[in-house]
Amino acid sequence: MSATRTTTKTTAEAINEIEGYLLWESEKSRARERARAFTAALPWLTEAQREHVEQRYTQDHLAASRDHLRRIAHRSGELRTEYEAVHRTLKRRMTAWCTTCTALTTVTVLLTLLSHR
User: Fold this and answer.
1) 54: which DSSP letter?
2) How far apart are CA 70 and CA 65, in angstroms?
3) Cα(85)–Cα(93) distance, rounded to whole angstroms?
């Protein structure tokens, strides 16, 4: 069973990597398209200037996207930690509540049985 979990985890990680790669390639394509749209509004640029501006615009856009993704990943990690802590607390409370209810039910049943003897 542990081999299955390892395989599943590896498969999930591979899928995440492929998805991440495809999303980043899409972001790069979108950055290039936005750069072309930006330079299209500047008709006085020479071809060399246009290429240079597009390259710089694309680099800037991708750097901003990378920063956003890092912040999102960091915050996701923080939220995961917070939610796991809340989940552990709720799980402990629920276990304590169920144990208490089971104990009370057991005592009630025993007292009922003893009172009928």
Assistant:
1) H
2) 9
3) 12
One-letter amino acid at 40 equals: A
> Residue 41, SS3?
coil
Q: Sorting pLDDT into bands at 50, 70 and 90, what band is 116?
A: confident
The model's pTM is 0.65
User: Measured between alpha carbons, how far is 78 from 47 in angstroms, rounded to an integer?
Assistant: 46
57 contacts: CB under 8 Å, gap ≥ 6? 31, 34, 35, 38, 39
**DSSP 3-state percent helix, strand, coil across the chain (nearest 5):** 90, 0, 10
Q: What does the pLDDT read at residue 6?
A: 62
Tell me the C-alpha distance between 117 and 108, whole Å: 15
pLDDT tens for each residue of 13-57: 899 899 999 999 999 999 999 999 999 999 999 999 999 999 999
Q: Which residues lie below 8 Å from residue 65, measured CB to CB, with a gap of 6+?
A: 27, 31
